[in-house]
Amino acid sequence: MGSLPGGDSAYLRRRDEIAARASAYIRGDVIPDVEYTDAEHAIWRLVATRLREQHRSQAAPEYLDAAEQLGVGVELIPQLQVVADRLDTLTGFRLQPAGGVVPFRHFCGSLADGYFHSTQYIRDGSTPFYSTEPDVLHEVIGHGSALADSRFANLYRLAGEAVRRVETEAAVEFISKVFWFTIECGLLDSSDGPRAYGASIVSSYGELDQFRSAEIRRLDIADMVGASYDITRYQETLYSAHSLTHLEDVAGGFWESCDDASIGDLLAAAE
Fold this sequence. Notes:
Elements: H1 7-20, H2 38-58, H3 61-70, H4 80-91, E1 94-97, H5 104-111, E2 115-118, H6 136-147, H7 150-165, H8 169-184, E3 187-188, E4 195-196, H9 199-202, H10 205-208, E5 215-218, H11 221-224, E6 237-241, H12 244-257, H13 260-269
Parallel strand pairs: 1-2, 3-6, 5-6
Antiparallel strand pairs: 3-4
Helix pairs in contact: 3-6, 4-6, 5-7, 7-8, 7-12
């Protein structure tokens, strides 16, 4: 398997070509198909196959069950409308094409309505096992799999409702941080050590191989106030919940009850 012809510049042109279509999309319309190239399908096939192998020992059983429910194959990049129809049947979530990173307030607010913004382009073939920007592989294998499970999907909705409820940028930023350390990079305890369910980790072959070398802390919302993260590299600090129920109690409970005042108190206590 090779990279897209022409290297990075060709990748950027192709990414921008596919991303531009998202701006014309109207919520509720059928999501237009993308005619993926053989090289793009080959990237998906390589990474999805390797990820499936790694998931057996590194991904949380709850994630594995959800991924099985979604039923995405490893041979071809799935069309977004096909994935959207499956999710709608399973949990009522729908997908909306995105041209790239969506501002968190808008992205997360849409979750309250049961819509997940998803890109359709696939990562550069020169770096297939890790991507610093969201692509269809991350969206479908990472987030899409989680959204196929009603309990995970409810956590997404609660995060969206929390963002809708608060007004200050400081509150939005902290909700974003909690989202990052759970939905994007969260772990669940298991008998053989922490396993990943977070979308950024389960969609990254490289980080799946490295996440257990990070500093892994008990899931604690207050502790996250002082934790730092960098979306462009493997995470040095991660949080593991005892179970999915524990995750629902801690993160879900936070999103369900937080407001500007309670988040302000958390931030002030850490100063």
